[in-house]
Write a structure and sequence with these properties.
heterodimer, A: 102 residues, mainly alpha, two-stranded antiparallel ribbon, 4 helices, flat, B: mainly alpha
Chain lengths: 102, 211
């Protein structure tokens, strides 16, 4: 149990620091145009990577499970311009239905 | 704030699954709730839980959690220039940053509003706390979140957010490159590294924008 509290204490400091670095170092600055052009693209890279990791990763393994089916169905819903709530429902229901039958 | 609301229910449920899992491995009631309140990073919390719960050392748990939280360095770089005020205020407002902030906190091209950040994260924080408390108190009375497909909700939500970013060719190439880098690194590196390395995808985006 001591280990749990040590981890909580250390990670509180670590996570605070990680989140503070960007705002403290760069806050209020006008970055050079070249750097800004790269930063504009960061959300596309990070969000896309999060989709991939949360769909296909199970620890260090690549897996194809009900999540992938849910995300594929969500992609169809996005293409049909469904609202966010509908997209999320489609993803969850598809994954749940697939798990129910397998 | 409204844009973040569809994610509150899944956040509550995933928070509950954290609470249930934590009490199952003997963390009691207080530790999981305190962790959700002050660490407030689902990815880091689950990483800690899986290492310690699996019998790993506290150092291994901290390293694993730090790696998955490392993406907030990159997110902080994207959002940092928009932060105003003194260092203390900037570092505290920076705590409101979550993954979804990259899209939800935006007020213009490469500009983020601290009030929008805090407004879109507040419901997530409330949901995360509510879920954790419910999870540790109700324990196994809560059904398995995976049976309801809840683990498909977050990738689907990020999918909606990334599609909103794909306004030009540079962004589309960046997203494709970032996704491919992450995919290639999943089996090769510890969790957390694929996402932070995916930032290199912006270079591919810049190359096509210039050509």
């Amino acid at each position: 149990m001591t280990d749990v509290w040590i981890a909580i204490g250390v990670l509180t400091v670590v996570c605070f620091t990680i989140k503070a670095v960007g705002p403290v170092a760069l806050g209020g600055r006008d970055l050079p145009r070249a750097a800004e052009r790269l930063i504009i693209l960061l959300p596309a890279a990070l969000l896309s990577a999060l989709v991939v990791v949360q769909t296909f990763a199970s620890g260090r393994e690549l897996v194809l499970d009900a999540r992938a089916a849910g995300v594929a169905a969500a992609l169809v819903a996005v293409a049909l311009r469904a609202s966010v709530l509908v997209v999320l429902l489609v993803a969850a229901l598809t994954a749940a239905a697939l798990r129910a039958v397998t | 704030m409204r844009a973040a609301l569809p994610l509150v229910i899944p956040t509550i449920l995933i928070g509950a699954s954290f609470g249930v899992s934590a009490s199952t491995v003997g963390w009691g009631v207080l530790a999981p709730v305190v962790m959700s309140a002050i660490v407030f990073s689902g990815a880091a919390q689950f990483a800690t839980l899986s290492v310690l719960g699996g019998g790993g050392s506290v150092v291994a748990a901290i390293v694993a959690a730090t790696l998955v939280a490392s993406r907030f360095l990159a997110i902080g770089v994207a959002i940092g220039p928009s932060m105003r005020g003194g260092r203390l205020r900037r570092s505290i407002e920076g705590q409101a940053v979550v993954d979804a902030s990259l899209a939800l906190g935006k007020v213009g091209e490469a500009r983020y509003g601290p009030r929008r950040l805090i407004g879109s994260t507040a419901p997530q924080y409330a949901g995360w706390m509510l879920g954790t408390v419910g999870g540790v108190l109700l324990g196994d009375a809560i059904a398995d979140p995976e049976a309801f497909g809840l683990d498909a909700l977050f990738p689907a939500f990020f999918l909606v957010l990334v599609v909103g970013e794909l306004n030009d060719r540079a962004a589309r190439v960046t997203a494709a490159a970032g996704g491919l880098i992450a995919l290639a690194l999943i089996p090769l590196t510890p969790p957390g590294i694929p996402v932070i390395c995916a930032c290199a995808g912006v270079l591919a985006g810049r190359l096509v924008a210039r050509s």
